[in-house]
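Let us practice reading a record.
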Amino acid sequence: MQNDELNWSVYLIETVDNTLYCGVSNDVEARYQAHCAGKGAKYTRAHRPKELVWTETGHSYSSALKREYAIKKLSRKRKLSLIAGTSS
């Protein structure tokens, strides 16, 4: 598998304390399960995952990282709009 293939996704997880975590993966479900098992990112070990709330597919590894960076810069309100499908 090459990183330039369009099989990468960007995702948002809502945590039990109602924060939003953004990440990238080429297998979102497996990555979400890793977060739930405490084997994901440091952030989700401290802020336990509640639900996978949004996924955007069709990225290369590079474009997924760029999209993740852009999403992380958004306000919570804009992220919620993205989840609701009323923003890009």
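A brief commentary: DSSP finds four helices and three strands in the chain.
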